[in-house]
């Protein structure tokens, strides 16, 4: 397999990934001209015909980010609300001037908080991205005044029907104690049981 085939088989890739696979700037330009790839944004390319996948693209650009809140709800199909921006968690001190240009709303956290509830999901294009678990996501949005009550209730109903288990209940209480000691999520769960 040639380097050009291996990188194109990934579907979505960065300029750096192409260079590491042995492609040159000239190879990328030729692939663009021949219609083999398309430029998604600065430094990110996709195999021609691949569906647009904002989550896969953003994960490539910001590998230290974790999809959170409304973006996580969308990835889990726990909301019908179209996100106005991309919610991502980053380590405290992380700074990148391009976050605004990619419509990313960053949440910076201490490492012990940042790493709680991490998991991965597969996006519509088949890419794997890092996201908070449904349990952590529900807790993150529950008492957030910037998230509409109807969105929170819809997420809770989806969580109850698709993700709730005795293990997730234990996880929820663990996360609540570590992250949001004053959250009202446990009262909402009691009402729905």
UniProtKB/TrEMBL annotation:
<dbReference type="InterPro" id="IPR025159">
    <property type="entry name" value="AbiEi_N"/>
</dbReference>
<feature type="domain" description="AbiEi antitoxin N-terminal">
    <location>
        <begin position="8"/>
        <end position="47"/>
    </location>
</feature>
<protein>
    <submittedName>
        <fullName>Type IV toxin-antitoxin system AbiEi family antitoxin domain-containing protein</fullName>
    </submittedName>
</protein>
<dbReference type="Pfam" id="PF13338">
    <property type="entry name" value="AbiEi_4"/>
</dbReference>
């Amino acid at each position: 397999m040639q380097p050009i085939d291996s990188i194109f088989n990934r579907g979505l890739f960065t300029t750096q990934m192409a260079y590491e696979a042995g492609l040159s700037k000239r190879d990328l330009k030729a692939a663009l001209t021949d219609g083999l790839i398309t430029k998604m944004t600065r430094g990110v390319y996709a195999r021609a015909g691949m569906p647009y996948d904002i989550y896969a693209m953003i994960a490539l650009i910001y590998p230290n980010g974790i999809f959170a809140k409304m973006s996580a709800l969308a990835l889990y199909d726990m909301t019908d609300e179209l996100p106005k921006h991309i919610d991502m968690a980053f380590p405290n001190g992380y700074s990148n001037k391009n976050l605004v240009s990619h419509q990313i709303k960053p949440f910076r956290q201490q490492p012990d908080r940042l790493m709680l509830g991490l998991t991965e999901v597969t996006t519509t294009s088949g890419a794997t991205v890092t996201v908070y678990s449904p349990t952590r996501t529900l807790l993150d949005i529950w008492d957030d005044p910037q998230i509409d009550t109807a969105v929170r209730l819809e997420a809770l109903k989806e969580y109850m029907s698709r993700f709730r288990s005795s293990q997730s209940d234990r996880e929820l209480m663990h996360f609540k104690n570590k992250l949001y000691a004053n959250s009202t999520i446990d009262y909402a769960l009691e009402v729905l049981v």
